[in-house]
Specification:
342 residues, alpha/beta, six-stranded mixed β-sheet, 6 helices
């Protein structure tokens, strides 16, 4: 190889998140944030900065997305393919391992891992093999070696190979407590990743991270790259940077893989606490307004209210009342586990 093969790698775009086709309640929807970051993530491909695009799965938030959402997700990939950049898609668990409305993805340069398989492309004189399979729902720990074998990746004579999937690998971490995936049935054994791949490109884990060693700190045969999700989908991701990766590949003799993480403008997500005990409705409203005023206008805000609540309190906390003083750019959710007193 005389030059890098440059891959734009994104995953877990979850398009359709909070974007109902026929909303019953008028409020700010977060779905447009996901669409905006998706467009921003694909910009380097449109600008000619990369040679290949790989989406690591969960393009959509659910398998039953409206056709309009599917078009908004897949048509940009077709435009990238029209520009001469091949696109590879791994169906994820939110798609139930099958890309919905796949007619919008039909293009000779758009390739879907609808079953275990290997695609080959030539990039500026370099032969690149991309092996992969859709999300494995049966317990990937047991079936991973078989799935790899079924891709036929070892039969391809390419200068560089990568594995594309949507799975957990031992050592990946998530959440505010840094939960570490270890030996569950849906977790790939790190030692089962064979030598021969320059990198493993995986979706499914929403926190950006790169695994280079196993749980015993022994080097992996290939680095496992997680770009993470393009926006925050839950409070477990609060404070995590969001974005995508640009991966540079060379043959094993020339250094394998290097990578960079590019941030996207994720909205601030935060939780605030209020106590209703001993506070009348007027004091609760004052505290509520002060809380809203103290956070960024584009925040995704969760307010947890503790204490006994009366019907009067609930009117103050109602969505209709919140909309009278919260910025249109803000998303606010009220959470309370306490019973209501009459």
């Amino acid at each position: 190889m005389t030059s890098d093969v440059r891959i734009l790698f994104l995953a877990d775009s979850h398009l359709g998140f909070d974007l109902p086709a026929r909303p019953r309640v008028r409020r700010r929807r977060r779905g447009h944030d996901f669409l905006a970051n998706y467009a921003a993530a694909l910009e380097p491909a449109r600008a000619g900065e990369v040679d290949v695009v790989v989406h690591g799965g969960d393009v959509f938030d659910e398998p039953g997305v409206a056709a309009s959402v599917a078009y908004q997700a897949l048509e940009p990939l077709r435009r990238v393919a029209d520009a001469g950049v091949p696109v590879f898609i791994v169906p994820g668990n939110h798609e139930r391992s099958r890309l919905p409305h796949d007619r919008f993805a039909w293009h000779r340069r758009v390739h879907v891992f609808d079953r275990p398989r290997t695609f080959e492309v030539e990039v500026r004189g370099t032969r690149l093999a991309l092996a992969g399979f859709p999300y494995e729902r049966r317990g990937v720990r047991m079936h991973f070696p078989e799935l790899l074998e079924r891709t036929g990746w070892q039969r391809e004579d390419a200068a560089v190979s990568v594995l594309c999937m949507h799975q957990c690998v031992e050592g990946a971490t998530v959440g505010p407590a840094d939960f570490t995936f270890r030996n569950a049935a849906d977790v790939v054994r790190a030692r089962d990743i064979p030598p021969g791949f320059a990198a493993v490109l995986s979706g499914h884990i929403h926190r950006h991270q790169v695994l280079t060693t196993d749980l015993s700190h022994r080097p992996l045969a290939a680095p496992v790259l997680y770009p993470g999700s393009i926006e925050r989908t839950s409070l477990a991701e609060m404070g995590e940077p969001k974005g995508f990766m640009v991966v540079h590949l060379r043959g094993a003799a020339e250094g394998g893989a290097t990578w960079e993480f590019r941030c996207l403008p994720a909205r601030p997500m935060m939780v605030k606490e209020l106590v209703a005990d001993g506070a009348g409705p007027e004091r609760l409203e004052q505290a509520l307004r002060a809380t809203v005023a103290a956070v960024p206008a584009d925040a995704v805000l969760t307010i947890r209210v503790a204490g006994d609540l009366t019907e009067a309190h609930l009117r103050i906390l109602s969505a209709a009342h919140l909309r009278t003083f919260t910025p249109e750019t803000m998303n606010v959710a009220i959470r309370s586990d306490w019973p209501v007193r009459s």
